[in-house]
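User: Run a structure prediction on this.
Assistant: Running it now.
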Amino acid sequence: MKSNHTIIMKNLKNLKNIEILSKSAQKSISGGIPLCVILCGEAGGVISNTPGRGDVCQPGTTVCCYCR
């Protein structure tokens, strides 16, 4: 059985037509990542790509979200 990491990495290699979004563009996404919905509330948000930086962080970790 393949590990989740292996499956995720395989899927990431198959991505096409992706782009890096600015912080303001990320904040305009409706809903967002489930963890960010928990941290940010109903409006949601996106996970920060800089550990320890964002509008709100998960306690005890460096996982942060930029909220909408």
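Helices lie at 4-13, 23-27, 34-40.
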